[in-house]
Amino acid sequence: MTRHHPDSLTLMEYSAGNLSEPHALCIRLHLDKCSHCRSRVDTLDSLGAVMMEQQPKVSVSETMFDDILAKIDSVPALEQPTKAVPKISLLQKLLGEDINNLPWKRQLGDVSVLDITEKFPGQKEQVVLQKLVAGGKAPAHTHRGTETTVVLQGAFSDQKGVFNQWDFVVLTDQDEHKPVAVGCEDCITLSVLSAPVKLTGTFTRMLNPFIR
Amino acid sequence: MNKVTNINHAIVKERPVTTLDQKPARAEGRKDPWSQLLVKVGKDQDRQAYHSLFEHFAPQLKYYAMANGMASHAEELVQEVFVSIWRRACLYDWQKAAASTWIFTIARNQRIDMLRKMRRTSAEMPVETEDLWQIPGEDDNQPITSLHRLMSERRVRESLSQLPEDQITVIAKVYMEQKSHQMVADELNIPLGTVKSRVRLALSKLKVILQDQNV
């Protein structure tokens, strides 16, 4: 059971389809394991439908329905979707690998990172996976801009509490913390950094959101 | 206002939300004419039902596309959404979402997809829009009870009718014009905090905000 949830305004922007793909990914991963937030999103999706219903209507071209019929008739039944699609997890689809077998780049001490921004072409955000070895500590640090994080494996704790698998947390430049990986697994998180990080200064320092 | 709303109001009067049990929720689901039509499309490829859905939803969808700044692609979006409705109607389950909600999520995803194609760089993204934004009822893991979904649909309509105009305006801009809260604040020339508090007030009416939940 996750205890740290996305805030309602963020879920609303998700439901409206206004979030970037990396942010939507963080929400999606959390939703997959959090029935509470799923039901909040259901309500928000309904809100979207009701908003749409209450807005003005614009008539469509007279031939459109016939065009649509022609289109659906031209598609063979074979291409109809079926429900029985074997499911690989979203993370596996994204990473193409088990999360523990990735080409992690060791940073300072207990921290490793992997920048996966390139998986989201055309986005402004930086997307990184971070790993803190079991029992390991990250040095105290603050955040640049806003960092949205979802815990993918293990857990970490800081002065605000314990963040378990699938917990969702947003940190700003106001938050200084000193995370410690708790439990017997390495703690792996996915983070989206809203402010574009410029690689000036020390490359390593800038690249690693745990240590800035 | 249309039929759906009237039916919903009638049911709300009969029985307050908190005491609803499974039975009336199901009955309500059956009464939602659009969900019924959509089920017919899925089960029997009923073209008359499909046409009725088109008459009702196409003009809404076209406005949705236009409000989103997709004026030159508005008809294309409506068409794509309807082709998609036809193809996936067999997956639609009225117990999991009302037709209007289901169609809204398809339109939202179609818009995201079209924008994605327009700004496509040479590299492909490994995850698809529908991996990130799901259509209700199509994700099989831990389905939410029909009771909950139907209640939320009705509750939203009911609560929305009681919200002050300034709250509705803000929500409409987020949903219909894809504006961030910051953009809404800039446009209405009010502080970001005011926008957020309006949305929070509205969402607490809709019980999206955590306060009443045991988490």
Mean pLDDT rating of chain A: 85
Q: Low-confidence spans of chain A: pLDDT under 50, at least 5 residues?
A: 196-212
- Terminal Cα separation of chain B, in Å? 37 Å
Estimated structural class of chain B: mainly alpha
**How would you characterize the largest beta sheet of chain B?**
none
CATH homologous superfamily annotation of the largest domain in chain B:
RNA polymerase sigma factor, region 2, helix turn helix motif
Helix content of chain B: 55-70%
Helix content of chain A: 25-40%
Description:
- The complex is a heterodimer of chains A (212) and B (215).
- With 212 residues, chain A is α+β, with helices and mostly antiparallel strands.
- Chain A has a domain at 97-207: Jelly Rolls.
- Chain A contains six helices and nine strands; from the N terminus they run αααααβββββββββα.
- Chain A has helices at residues 8-15, 21-33, 35-54, 64-73, 90-95, 203-207; strands at 105-106, 111-115, 126-132, 147-153, 155-158, 161-163, 168-171, 180-182, 187-193.
- Chain A has a six-stranded antiparallel beta sheet with strand order 1-2-3-9-4-7, covered by helices on one side.
- In chain A, a hairpin with a 2-residue loop joins strand 5 (155-158) and strand 6 (161-163).
- In chain A, helix 2 (21-33) crosses helix 3 (35-54).
- The relative contact order of chain A is 0.17.
- By secondary structure, chain B is an all-alpha fold.
- Chain B has two domains: 3-146, Orthogonal Bundle (Rna Polymerase Sigma Factor, Chain: A), CATH 1.10.1740; 163-215, Winged helix-like DNA-binding domain superfamily/Winged helix DNA-binding domain (Arc Repressor Mutant, subunit A, Orthogonal Bundle), CATH 1.10.10.10.
- Chain B contains eleven helices and no strands.
- Chain B has helices spanning 3-14, 22-31, 33-44, 47-67, 74-88, 99-118, 129-132, 146-160, 165-176, 181-188, 192-205.
- Chains A and B meet through helix 1, helix 2, helix 3, helix 4 and helix 5 of A and helix 4, helix 5, helix 6, helix 8 and helix 9 of B.
- Chain A: It comes from Marinobacter salexigens.
- Chain A: This is ChrR family anti-sigma-E factor.
